[in-house]
Amino acid sequence: MEVSMKEIMDCIVNPVKSQIILSIQKEGECTAKDLLSSLNDIPQATLYRTLNRLVDSGILDIVAENKVRAVTEKVYALNKSFLNVNQSIIEQNDGEAYFKLFTNFIMLLMKEFQNYAEKPSINIAKDVSGFSAVPVYATGEEMLEIGNKFKEIIAPYQTRNTAIKEQNMRILATIITPPNDK
Hints:
Blueprint: H1 5-13, H2 15-27, E1 30-31, H3 32-38, H4 44-56, E2 60-68, E3 71-78, H5 80-83, H6 85-92, H7 95-117, H8 140-154
Antiparallel strand pairs: 1-3, 2-3
């Protein structure tokens, strides 16, 4: 099922849908029970209602159904076409959709920082938190090369090594701005 741009934008601006989608994207596949334990600020009825809407709209697929006692537990995954939303926006060259996608990206990062900053005891240096911006002079081809090298560097760190207790999941975000004409 092809996902409409309207459905994609709705997911981007809806905080409950965004949280569900990010959790499923992170895990690959999730049950409602998995989501309830990781998204404890979403009421159960809201979660189930939203999951049904995401399946109906084609954002989520039910990839398995497990019989657990007398109940059938559904396993959810993101629809392949939804996973390619960035590519779809690029192909359509849709500036408005691209800006909305970027805005949601920034809002989610801001929420992560807010959650961290509101903790009763933080240690910015010890927690290795930070952000920076660096000017880069490069062609489009060179930017792709930089991106590929960056992917190579972080690939080993994108899955948890259970032997290392100190490893914590962090969000490493990148933003490449369009060329500055000045």
